[in-house]
């Protein structure tokens, strides 16, 4: 494979796409040896683009399978393949990705005519802001991990400090790359760029997979907390203020923490920031995938001139009031829960308050989503069928991320039914899990339907009416009868829009704003440490610590990512309503 520049279009070309600029001397058409006999340059370009995507996709698939084999071997046979081996493999991938990103920044993107187009729909400000937020938290997480390993250096390998350092460099470089180049539609070195993007996607996915399945440090902290409980209950008091068990090969070494305060800071910080690293990996994968789809893409001129409506807080009353009430009440319940449920002796009252809040809020969100979907159906607006990789990815991510919460909820329902406990707390947990499933489904339908609707800003109908009148006036000499018909159509359209659709748009704005605020508080609560599914002990005692750890750490990051991604989709529905 090779990416070469065609100085002139082939004389066999029969037609040109509207997305291609008039100056064809700056277009870098793709070539592939298998399609060298195609008579049309554009046909050869399209076939080469598909071949490049296929090859880079296969490369990423092999990297993911190899990394998954390493991680699975570590889980099922931690003697032959250790956590250090997995870290070494991931560090090699991160270093390769770092070299490619640096090459892209200083080489590929600075070539002449490298970035002729930029996808205005890709890399929204809230997505790039999330990359910076979660990236910063991930850096801080690795700092805590370095500090924790340094304090317990007597029973941990000094090499373990090197891996978080490489992770910090990878996170910072990737965040800078995505902030400045997420909108690029690169037109040179197509195949090399695709392969680099796909290897970076595979690396982020493997880092996420390791974070989901690796419970080593959590087990150490859990053992410490159990020993503290035994110490206060008078059972087997430890001779040292803080200690943990660390497995090195087949031996178990007693890790003594010389400073209790520092250990507590590192432990709490690590546990609090752990979900942010998984969120960072998922967001980076989605942004890198959009960049991969945009490699070699030529966007039409009018596509870039499309202006998105701005966010304006007017015309809505009930949505902000109800949403703000949900946020304030949720924040208070979150603080009560953090104080009572995370102590050595968790209070059942905290779980009752937490579940009750969700049981009241989730039906309201379901009702709002159902009403919004019905209004979308009543509007009878055309579907927007224009090809848009960003929107297609939004739909896939929305559906995929919701599976995390749905999966955890079903596991919780099975555990609660199997234990056959008739307590009030179990009943509340059951209702909580079932309502979460319904809320995810109804909100998905509302958001996806709204993203595919061809929305017209309120002022554009008037512009359309004026354009139709001007066009009719220009044709007055041709036919007076046609002029009358055009004016009649424009008048009927105007009356229909403002007499029948205005209330629907107001209701859509109220619903979408209410759901935005609700998703914000439902994002904040699990992100900053409220995890009743792991802390109440019911499901953990049924499935076991390690199994339930994997289930929760698979579903929780996806659930948090779903809330954040839903906020972006709901905001788009709000501003276009």
UniProtKB/TrEMBL annotation:
Pfam families, A to Z: Otopetrin (PF03189)
Coarse class of the protein's main subcellular location: membrane
Stretch list, region Disordered: 1-20, 455-475
Swiss-Prot/TrEMBL keywords: Cell membrane, Hydrogen ion transport, Ion channel, Ion transport, Membrane, Transmembrane, Transmembrane helix, Transport
UniProt biased composition (Basic and acidic residues): 458-468
Keyword Transmembrane helix annotated: yes
GO cellular component, one term: plasma membrane
GO molecular-function terms, A-Z: proton channel activity
TM regions (residue ranges): 54-75, 87-106, 126-149, 161-179, 191-211, 271-292, 313-339, 351-375, 395-418, 430-451, 511-530, 542-562
Source organism superkingdom: Eukaryota
Membrane topology: Multi-pass membrane protein
Protein known as: OTOP3 protein
Organism from which the protein derives: Loxia leucoptera (White-winged crossbill)
């Amino acid at each position: 494979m090779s990416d070469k520049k065609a100085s002139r279009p082939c004389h066999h070309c029969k037609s040109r796409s509207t997305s291609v600029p008039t100056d064809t001397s700056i277009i870098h058409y793709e070539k592939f040896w298998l399609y060298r006999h195609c008579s049309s340059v554009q046909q050869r370009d399209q076939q080469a683009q598909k071949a490049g995507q296929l090859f880079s996709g296969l490369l990423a698939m092999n990297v993911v399978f190899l990394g998954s084999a390493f991680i699975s071997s570590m889980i099922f046979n931690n003697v032959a393949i250790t956590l250090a081996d997995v870290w070494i493999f991931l560090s090699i991938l991160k270093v390769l990705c770092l070299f490619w990103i640096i090459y892209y920044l200083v080489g590929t993107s600075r070539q002449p005519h490298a970035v002729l187009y930029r996808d205005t729909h890709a890399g929204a400000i809230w997505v790039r802001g999330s990359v910076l937020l979660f990236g910063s938290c991930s850096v801080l997480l690795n700092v805590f991990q370095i500090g924790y390993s340094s304090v317990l250096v007597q029973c941990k390998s000094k090499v373990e400090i090197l891996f978080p350092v490489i992770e910090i460099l990878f996170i910072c470089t990737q965040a800078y790359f995505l902030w400045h180049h997420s909108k690029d539609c690169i037109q040179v070195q197509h195949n090399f760029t695709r392969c680099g993007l796909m290897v970076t996607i595979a690396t982020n996915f493997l880092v996420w997979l390791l974070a989901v399945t690796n419970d080593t440090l959590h087990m150490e902290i859990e053992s410490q907390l159990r020993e503290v409980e035994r110490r206060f209950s008078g059972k087997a008091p430890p001779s040292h203020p803080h200690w943990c068990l660390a497995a090195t090969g087949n031996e178990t070494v007693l890790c003594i923490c010389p400073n209790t305060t520092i250990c507590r800071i590192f432990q709490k910080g690590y546990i609090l920031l752990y979900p942010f690293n998984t969120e960072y990996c998922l967001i980076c994968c989605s942004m890198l995938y959009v960049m991969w789809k945009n490699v070699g893409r030529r966007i039409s001129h009018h596509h870039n001139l499309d202006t998105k409506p701005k966010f304006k807080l007017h015309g809505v009353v009930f949505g902000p009031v109800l949403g703000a009430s949900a946020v304030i009440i949720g924040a208070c319940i979150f603080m009560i829960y953090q104080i009572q449920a995370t102590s050595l002796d968790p209070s059942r009252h905290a779980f009752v308050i937490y579940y009750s809040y969700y049981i009241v809020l989730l039906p309201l969100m379901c009702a709002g989503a159902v009403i919004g979907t019905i209004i979308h159906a009543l509007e009878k607006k055309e579907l927007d069928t224009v090809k848009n990789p960003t929107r297609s990815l939004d739909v896939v991510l929305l559906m995929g991320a919701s599976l995390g919460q749905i999966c955890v909820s079903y596991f919780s329902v099975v555990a609660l039914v199997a234990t056959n406990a008739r307590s009030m707390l179990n009943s509340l947990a059951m209702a909580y899990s079932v309502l979460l499933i319904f809320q995810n489904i109804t909100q998905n339908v509302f958001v996806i339907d709204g993203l595919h609707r061809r929305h017209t800003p309120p002022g554009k109908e008037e512009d359309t009416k004026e354009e139709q009148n001007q066009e009719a006036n220009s044709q007055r000499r041709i036919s007076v009868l046609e002029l009358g018909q055009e004016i009649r159509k424009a008048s009927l359209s105007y009356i229909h829009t403002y007499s029948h659709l205005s209330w629907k748009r107001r209701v859509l704005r109220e619903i979408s704003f209410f759901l935005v605020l609700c998703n914000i508080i439902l994002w904040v609560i699990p992100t900053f440490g409220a995890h009743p599914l792991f802390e109440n002990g019911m499901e953990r005692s049924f499935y076991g610590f390690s199994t339930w750890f994997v289930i929760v750490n698979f579903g929780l990051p996806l659930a948090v990512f779903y809330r954040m991604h839903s906020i972006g989709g709901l905001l788009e529905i709000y501003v276009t309503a």
